[in-house]
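thread from #wetlab-drylab

HS: before we spend reagent money on co-crystallization trials with iron/sulfur cluster, can we at least see a predicted complex? here's what I'd submit
DV: go for it
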Amino acid sequence: MTSPTPKRLFIKTYGCQMNVYDSQRMAEAMAADGYVLTEDQAQADMVLLNTCHIREKAAEKLYSDLGRLKPLKAERPDLKIGVAGCVAQAEGEEITRRMPLVDLVVGPQAYHRLPAMARGEAPAVVTEFPAEDKFDHLPARAATRRTPTAFLTVQEGCDKFCAFCVVPYTRGAEVSRPAPRILTEARDLVARGVREITLLGQNVNGWHGEGADGREWGLGRLIRALAEIDGLDRIRYATSHPNDMADDLIEAHGAEPKLMPYLHLPVQSGSDRVLKAMNRKHTAEQYLRLIDRIRAARPDILLTSDFIAGFPGETDDDHRATLDLIERVGFATAFSFKYSPRPGTPAADRAEVEPSVADARLHELQALLSRQQREAQESMVGREVGVLFEKPGREPGQMVGKSDYLHSVFVDAPQAKVGDLVRVRILASAPNSLQGQLLQ
Ligand code: SAH
Ligand code: SF4
Ligand code: F3S
């Protein structure tokens, strides 16, 4: 039997790391149906846009990209255009109404049905949260590209309902994948050359499930089980909620050498009034105490966070409280966003902060956070760190990889190859990377 000519699939991914993971899984599901990935949209038989709904700008990007696809679709009417991800979930059929060139719309919990949809054997719009687990219907992990690092979704959805956020609506209720499935997927990845795995979840530290010993496990225990896999050298996880930072997870940071000294722990604001209005369910002081406990377990850990500027009702005092919290913690890097009202969320009807005021606050946050980022990087100079090489650098003989602390490090290493995990002395700090020298 001769195999049919492969069809070409182009995927564009917006939004968070979970979307990056989902795009890989969709590519693998479509590969089982004869599609190969292409980097060239103009050559594609199918274009899939995996979208993000978190802020208005992110969601609007979909429509400008679809507008740009009109000439290609006019030229080749058989080109299939699919919309996946969180905008697909939030807007469903509204997308095909507004943009008739779209053939398929699939939500983040239903993308195991994408191959059938592309064959015309399933409805063109699937956004219900199906009763079955999509992971049970997806092919086992195949390496679409060989990289020493990989994402692995362990938890999805969110029950926290922060007043500004669409995720509980687009991703649905919190669900943890069973530990045995996660361990199998991790072993599959390691067998394909992966040495570092980042566990993903909208509230990844809320992961829980029955372990191999029949007991209830939390993320800390899962990490210890993963650390027993030979050939898996580094473990990371994102994104966490402060209220789900369990004792055994904090302990794992001190006890498990494969768990990297880096933690993304969004706090959003340093004002108790704003935290309450956001429905974050903790105070600034509780966050600071949590940071103290984490640093006691792992003194060299680098911390990062997310902040929102101009949340409805935020005053200058509230804003100063956020700057104060940032000063007190000292973040290695952090993301700050101007508040964007999202349809259907509780905060959407509240009176907004004057846009120019929100802009000014955002700039102030960003200036402080980039100063801290520079300082954190400069503090690495002279230190010895592990670096996992991910690709060749700009200069001949140079490699680039991530340090234990997730900094990009350039190293002269003419004998090295991608996937080598080496010890490096940091020599210098550039704006967005470090330079290091091979030890040994
Ligand atoms: N689950 C994570 C992150 C979710 S979204 C958490 O609990 O923190 C990533 C970040 O986007 C959030 O941390 C928040 O800072 C930002 N964000 C979410 N909704 C937003 C909105 N409506 N406007 C501005 N920023 C928003
Ligand atoms: Fe959104 Fe809050 Fe859930 Fe994070 S915890 S995904 S910010 S609702
Ligand atoms: Fe965006 Fe959905 Fe991720 S809204 S940030 S793609 S969970």
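DV: The longest helix spans residues 355-378.
HS: ok that's useful, forwarding to the group
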